[in-house]
Design goal:
heterodimer, A: alpha/beta, Nucleotidyltransferase, domain 5, 3 domains, five-stranded mixed β-sheet, 22 helices, 24 strands, B: 254 residues, mainly alpha, 70% helix, extended
Amino acid sequence: MNILGISAHYHDSAAALVVDGAPVCAVQEERLSRQKGDAAFPLLAIESCLQQAGMEPDELDAVVFYERPMLKFDRVLTCTLRAFPQSWRAFPKAMKNLLGEKVWMRGIISSHLGVPGRKVLFTEHHQAHAATAFLTAPTRRAAIMTADAVGEWATLSVGDGERLSNGSTKIRRFREIRFPHSLGMLYSTFTAYLGFKVNEDEYKVMGLAAYGKPRLVEDVRRLVRHTPDGAFVLDLNYFEFHSTAERSYSSRFVELFGPPRSPYEPIDFNTAEGQRFADCAASVQRVLEDTMVELAQSLHHETGLTDLCLGGGVALNGVANARLLEESGFERIFVPPAPGDAGCAIGAALYCDRIHFGNPDRDIPDHPFWGPSVDGSELARLAREDGHSAAVCEEGALIDQVADDLAAGRIVGWMEGALEFGPRALGHRSILAAPHTSEMRDRLNREIKYREPFRPFAPVVPIEAAGCYFDIPPGGARLARFMSAVFPVRREWRAQLQAITHVDGTARLQVLEPTMAPRLHALLEAYGRRTGIPVLLNTSFNLAGEPIVNRAVEGYSTFLRCKIDVLVAEGTRVMKRTSGMERTRVNMIKEEVA
Amino acid sequence: MDSARNYERPTVFDRMLMPVHRWIWSDAPRRVQKLFRFGETETDGGRDILRAAEVTPDALLRRLYLEHAIDEFRHGVMFRRRAAALLKASSPSFNDGFQGNWLAPGGHGLDDLQVDGESDSNMLAFLHLSEKAAASRFTVYRDVMQHDPSTRAVFEEILHDETFHMNYTLTQLARVEPKRHKRHLWRARISRLWKAYLRMATGLAGILGSILLTIQYFVLLPPFAWLAKRAEQRESPGWTTVSPGRGDSLDRQY
């Protein structure tokens, strides 16, 4: 059975193709269109999936959209009516936005793909999140918790999932918390207040939190009240996201926390103002963690299960995930590589296969590499055309050469195999560097990533060595498989792992099993043999404001625009050097035409 | 060659609009907003040109596009830095004021370009005209910025780069399409006019739509709003039970 899953139109569109119960391709539209966070209908991603499977649209048995558009329309309209007359500015925008395209998904999908309307199906948004979290996790039975800003009405849901011995699958949702009461919206409101981009920069708030003290926790708690049944409500006097499109926090919020940060002002922790922003971040982070832990504890008591599958954008918060593992009572926590909306494409397709069509359960390969593959020969061609030396090496020689590069302090752009699905670079489209000195961190921030100095870099470590360098609790290695948790760097190693140790002594590490990315694992071992520490700094292969690279040509153009020293795509290695001949040619043209 | 090396001469249309531009740029908050917007436009344009560098089969064009893209990214940074400096120096009672942003995305107008599907000749013709228009406009902006030497210096520097962009695109177009480069330029001109019309029409349709919807909001919605508020009061806070079978049918859109 061939099922295409689609998520689109809010942020981070994606498509995923499931053939006979297993994904064959999943890719975010932004990686192909090269527009970061591209929310457009994912035509390129769909084409890529079908092409990878060698399939035409008429061979699809179903196309599943990741939410119910009319239910979403119902929520937007109801909230606008409830906020009457304050919502008068938001109403025309919301109606034009929804009625223009978003509510007509059956027709849009049908016309784009040429499939009959009866083949177009819809899951609920949190149903898709739950399916992504449970059906991709290697567990037979687990509690499921999903949390994000908002789907149709639900913002958080709890339930469970089970793979039965007869091959059938069950996913139940017990209950949900509904808009406008939303942990995701709470966090996004602080993201906006702190001068960052909503739906994109939430991780910056998490990074900033480490610089602050949670001294404003009681103030944040005034915004989030517990209800007698163990849920929570937001005090809407402090918010405006439910009534206007202009601002998510109210004047009362500003009275409580002070003036918001200008997005154009750098944060200076030496000033009272800079410290206040860090404290705000620390406080909302603490309240988010506490609330998630309480909800998970209650779910654990209720289900008595040992495994928890987490989905939704809030599951990208690695600090909260680590606390859930420590305090919720669950022994294992599974977070998929793409827990956000993009991942819903895969969840919707799998839900349709297992639950709607009742197909028997199948193990899903436990890796994030579902995108298009990179072509090393393309890099060799480009580099030679531009006068760079490109060497095509044997596997062992390449690993040794790159390990030497890294040990010599060179920064390496590393591309291999299929592109990752999800926001993290997990070793197939990564920038790798030595993790030992703070100078390397500053160099990466200044010369390559062009980003705020307070943001940490992540390490990657082989699973067999992880416990030596990091304080990983039981179950932590699983959670760190897709970089989903933040754990302490062991004190004795912090001085030698400065580039990846955050200000609070932690790191958002990736624990690598050799079967998931064998070449990167071999590289880590080779690097360990040279330096004594088999740990590398691993950051996504992109520049600020750009999506992670996909093809060799995108890696190459990134390589040329920043101070990455070495570029590797499959077996091809390119070393940066200025080619006198080519520069002269461009310079001659410049002189001639200027 | 068609139109190279006349970058410092604004078009008649831009010269006619000079008093308007003088008025727009005289206001500091508006200047800040416009500079931030230019910063975004330059960066977006840079991304499109970068994409052109990634898809072109022509090695020389790849290098030139890449240089061009790097320039555009740098311009984006320059505009943002200048805007941030003005913002820092401005009073706390900063008001956004009238922007007129509904009408056109402004700048290089690369927003509608599907870079992946364009030939090099189309891309070069389009870029040439966009850069020429930008150079003409930026010349006017520089000239009306007598009262703000720092912002004027930013435009001055960017204008220098725009000259290179405007001219290399034309010479490369003549190289790539020696016989038909003029035809490509005319086609690009018509395409720009059509896109300008579409932008204008979309902007006007948007305004009309907003007016109609706002009228509906105040005329038709009050009784429904009252009902929605009453229903909200009856809702209990906290958990909502998900009834078994609620999401079972995937055929429904609601």
